[in-house]
Fold this sequence. Notes:
Blueprint: H1 3-12, H2 17-24, H3 28-36, H4 42-52, H5 56-59
Helix pairs in contact: 2-3
Amino acid sequence: MHPEEIKAALRMKGVTLTALGESAGVSRSMVTHVIHGHAKSAHVMELISKTIGKPVAAIWKDKPVLRRKRPVAPAAVTRVGASA
């Protein structure tokens, strides 16, 4: 879908980009970047998908959803030579 079609579908459901961002825990700007394909967020894409009632693949046909695992920091890092 074209970004304007996505935004129109959200408006028809009565959902603003700001409200969608708040629901997703991201900024309105991030929602806009995802809609336009300038940023990837599986969470935001899935929320938009559920809101407008279309599968993610139908909304972003040429934009695969990428899931990235964030590295987990060690619970406690001790410097060499540091006393505990």
